[in-house]
Specification:
The chain has 2 domains: 239 residues, Aminopeptidase (3-Layer(aba) Sandwich); 91 residues, Beta Barrel (Elongation Factor Tu (Ef-tu), domain 3). It has 9 helices and 17 strands. It is globular and about 75 Å long. It is α+β, with helices and mostly antiparallel strands. The relative contact order is 0.18. The structure holds zinc ion. Zinc ion binds next to α5 and β13.
């Protein structure tokens, strides 16, 4: 849990992934998990772990497997500083404005991180009209207060500085709760899966991609560079078994294991791979469940369609309250996630 905690507490929004990349790179290098580590032009981190045993004849080319987990999180970039020193921000990723009231934020600038408060423009409840109380502002109507005067703010902040919501990592019941479990869980599962690997006959390219939250932008060039035979996209998915949601819309169940993402709005997983993963899960007594998300997308979509096409499956951890600072994931699902990935890699 310590590694997952560190990953969730390292701010990195689309286009500003240098911090999380450094944390992952240091960890995989210190622990000698890969034979080669590189970073592509857009900033995706790629670890190559060469086959540890021959597949058939000694000179046969090993199967090339790509794992991909996006390492960016939803957040904001500063777009304007007003005359009083309040910041206006541009979202990078899909926020629900209803979750943005009265939030602590962290503004990351060249001189260090500054604590701030995010709130919506408008009147507090004591002086708001009935119409004001019902209004849900646009994300761009929220502002950040740094508790500094305009001159001090301008001396520290430039347009394009990163802003993230601030929230702790905590264990709650059988679950972990934190901001950006989407997708530090996928980043973490890839690391754990490689750590626990014994022998494997495929070349494994583990990729931590950039800019997924703004439209799957980093995975596409990364997949072109890796040129895989088969790919596994590692992400999170909705778990809506919560009050107010019809059961048929739950997508996945918390505690029932990692999801084999049959399809979402962006891709249909290779059915042969779904079957393979299910068989392995059954034989190893690892919990997994099938899930369909009618909308949404993830990196698997662009990897699947790169070059002349790639057999691709998406794995996902069920996460409640996704895209808030209180995302919640069951520890059993975290456990089954990396165990199933390791078990499959050993059979490819
Ligand atoms: Zn995600």
């Amino acid at each position: 849990m310590k590694l997952l905690q560190t990953l969730t507490q390292t701010p990195s929004v689309p286009g500003r992934e240098d911090r999380i990349r450094k944390v992952i790179q240091e960890y995989i290098t210190t622990n000698n998990l890969f034979d080669e580590v590189s970073i592509d032009a857009m900033g995706s981190l790629i670890g190559l772990r060469k086959a540890r045993r021959n597949q058939g004849s000694p000179d046969a080319r090993p199967m090339r497997v790509m794992l991909a987990a996006h390492m960016d999180q939803i957040g904001f970039l500063v777009r304007y500083i007003d005359e009083n020193g309040y910041l206006r921000v541009n979202p990078v990723g899909g926020f629900d404005a209803r979750n943005l009231f009265a939030r602590k934020v962290r503004v990351c600038c060249s001189s260090g991180d500054l604590p701030g408060i995010m709130n919506a423009s408008g009147k507090p409840i004591h002086i708001a009209s009935e119409a004001d109380k019902k209004k849900i502002p646009e994300v761009t109507e929220f502002f950040v207060d740094l508790g500094l005067n305009a001159e001090q703010v301008r001396a520290k902040i430039v347009i394009g500085d990163m802003v993230v919501l601030d929230g702790p990592f905590e264990e709650v019941g059988h679950s972990v709760v934190s901001q950006c479990l989407d997708n530090r869980i996928g980043c973490w599962a890839q690391i754990r899966a490689i750590e626990n690997l014994r022998s494997h006959s495929c070349d494994i390219y583990a990729v931590w991609t950039v800019q997924e939250e703004v439209g799957l932008r980093g995975a596409q060039p990364a997949a072109f560079g890796v040129n895989p035979d088969v790919a596994v996209a590692c992400d999170t998915t909705l778990c809506c078994k919560t009050p107010g949601v019809p059961d048929e819309d739950r997508v996945s169940l918390s505690g029932d294991g990692v999801c084999l993402h049959v399809m979402d709005g962006s891709m249909i997983s290779d059915i042969g791979l779904i079957d393979d993963f299910e068989k392995i899960a059954r034989s190893r007594d690892i919990k997994c469940q099938r899930a369909i998300l009618p909308r949404g997308g993830q990196d698997g979509a662009v990897i699947q369609r790169s070059r002349s096409g790639v057999k691709t499956i998406a794995l996902a951890c069920p996460v409640k309250y996704i895209h808030t600072v209180t995302e919640m994931a069951h520890k059993d699902d975290l456990d089954s996630y990396h165990r199933l990935l390791t078990a499959w890699l050993e059979t490819v």
